[in-house]
């Protein structure tokens, strides 16, 4: 029998990617993305296990230890990657949960593979969890795991956290298998969401489709109760501050400014290349501001980092083409020899380089059409100069907390342009005041505090009457 752990995290992906070095050696490297960035800090020093897919189709690597964690890989075949991950997770659930920004694809065959893979994850959790352990399941790819796991292991404390929004009932209604999802989630003791509105949407769906009693934020299942509430995620404030305050990162921030020709203002966007992030809307606004001559390409430079993401899903390939076409057009129209208006970077960077970009940028543009939280907004607030400015979409979870940002509706391009210009033209004391209050807010709720709050809610959830493991 393999070793078991008192604290187990289950997420679609392990926090590491396998990379091949130029001399052909295979190594594990921390993978980018919001969930990993957040949970990496939480797992450090806990001696827990992480159950997840290692990122390559085929046989799973043997379990191994890395960064003070026990990593327990789950295998996915080529077909399962296509149906469970790219299909049902990213082409059905992702668009439905993000306000149907693109039309979701519904396939029955994907759903049955989703079910099968969720079962595999539940089995893996049951294998590594010690008697009475806490298992923390993450995100929309694993919504059936809580119920499957509870059936096998009623002794466990099971939590689930949704990193993305939970949609309004009217949109959730479209989802074939909606009851199965709700029942799957109700296998947990506590369900965490980014915003109170997300928890409310979930509870309304439970009332409507399962006809269960809901009192306040608690669902009554008769033999036990499940609470659904907001626990907004954050970042590793201390860790990031340490990085950004280092001499080398500050020097790199100055170097970035110099390399751009010491412009008056650097504008920055950092996103996974995803249609939810509003990159097209942002570029449209920037292009129009240059065309209107309200921004000057010799004085105002935009850096857009677009991290490669879900590159085999058609909507993502199309989006990349559209964005790169727009970048080309803007630079064709407004750049001069040796001085580009828009620097476009389609790759991953280490934390030091990201921090240096945040430190160099005068104005951060975070304009998603829908986003569970958006950690980039909080990272910028932590790293930027005292008079940095944040333009932030109302449709992010972060906007609930960061109300001192220059808030915008990215669908309204005229309004978005206006907010960008407000940030560009604001007197330094105003920017400083706004940034001060946002900074205080972010540092009060670090990712470590978030995990503590989440686990305290999970611990406080009412215990099920039977805590005996099924034989
Ligand atoms: P994501 O959609 O991935 O996360 P976000 O919250 O912005 O979005 O997190 C992205 C993370 O990746 C940030 O830490 C950022 O610094 C990092 N990153 C981005 N581009 C990078 C690059 N090129 N190189 C290196 N690092 C890069 C999901 C949800 C969000 C939610 C998080 C956490 O969609 O709404 O905030 O999970 O819950």
UniProtKB/TrEMBL annotation:
InterPro entries in the record: Glyco_trans_20
UniProt record, GO biological process: trehalose biosynthetic process
Superkingdom to which the source organism belongs: Bacteria
MF (Gene Ontology): alpha,alpha-trehalose-phosphate synthase (UDP-forming) activity
Similarity comment: family membership: Belongs to the glycosyltransferase 20 family.
Official protein name in the record: Trehalose-phosphate synthase
Originating organism: Dermacoccus nishinomiyaensis
Lineage start: Bacteria, Bacillati, Actinomycetota, Actinomycetes, Micrococcales
């Amino acid at each position: 029998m393999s070793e078991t752990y008192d604290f187990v995290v289950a997420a679609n992906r392990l926090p590491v990617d396998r990379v091949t070095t130029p001399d052909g050696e295979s190594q594990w490297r921390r993978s980018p993305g919001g969930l990993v960035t957040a949970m990496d800090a939480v797992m450090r020093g806990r001696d827990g296990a992480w159950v997840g897919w290692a990122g390559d189709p085929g046989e799973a690597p043997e379990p191994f230890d890395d960064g003070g964690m026990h990593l327990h890989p789950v295998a996915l075949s080529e077909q399962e990657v296509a149906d469970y991950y790219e299909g049902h997770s990213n082409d059905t659930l992702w668009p439905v949960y993000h306000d149907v920004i693109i039309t979701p694809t519904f396939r029955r065959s994907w759903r049955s593979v989703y079910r099968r893979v969720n079962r595999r994850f539940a089995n893996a959790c049951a294998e590594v969890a010690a008697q009475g352990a806490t298992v923390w399941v993450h995100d929309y790819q694993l919504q059936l795991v809580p119920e499957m796991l509870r059936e096998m292991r009623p002794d466990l404390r099971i939590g689930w956290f949704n990193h993305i929004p939970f949609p309004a009932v009217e949109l959730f209604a479209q989802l074939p298998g909606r009851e199965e999802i709700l029942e799957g989630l109700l296998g947990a003791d506590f369900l965490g969401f980014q915003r109170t509105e997300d928890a409310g949407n979930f509870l309304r769906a439970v009332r409507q489709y399962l006809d269960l009693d809901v009192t306040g934020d608690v669902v009554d299942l008769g033999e036990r109760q499940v609470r659904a509430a907001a626990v907004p995620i954050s970042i590793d404030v201390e860790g990031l501050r340490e990085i950004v305050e280092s001499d080398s990162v500050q020097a790199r921030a100055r170097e970035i400014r110099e390399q751009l020709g010491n412009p008056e203002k650097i504008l920055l966007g950092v996103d996974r290349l995803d249609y939810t992030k509003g990159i097209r809307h942002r570029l449209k606004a920037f292009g129009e501001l240059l065309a209107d001559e309200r921004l000057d390409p010799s004085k105002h430079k935009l850096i857009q980092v677009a991290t490669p993401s879900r590159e085999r899903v058609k909507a993502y390939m199309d989006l990349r083409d559209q964005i790169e076409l727009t970048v080309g057009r803007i630079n064709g129209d407004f750049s001069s020899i040796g001085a580009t208006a828009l620097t476009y970077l389609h790759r991953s960077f280490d934390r030091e380089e990201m921090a240096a970009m945040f430190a160099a940028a005068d104005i951060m543009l975070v304009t998603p059409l829908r986003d569970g939280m958006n950690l980039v907004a909080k990272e910028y607030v932590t790293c930027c100069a005292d008079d940095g400015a944040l333009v932030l979409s109302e449709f992010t979870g972060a906007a609930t907390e960061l109300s001192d940002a220059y808030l915008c509706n990215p669908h309204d391009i005229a309004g978005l342009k206006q907010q960008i210009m407000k940030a560009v033209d604001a007197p330094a004391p105003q920017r400083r005041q706004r940034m001060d209050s946002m900074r205080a807010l972010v540092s009060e709720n670090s990712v470590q505090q978030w995990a503590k709050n989440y686990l305290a809610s999970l611990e406080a959830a009412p215990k099920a009457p039977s805590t005996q493991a099924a034989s």
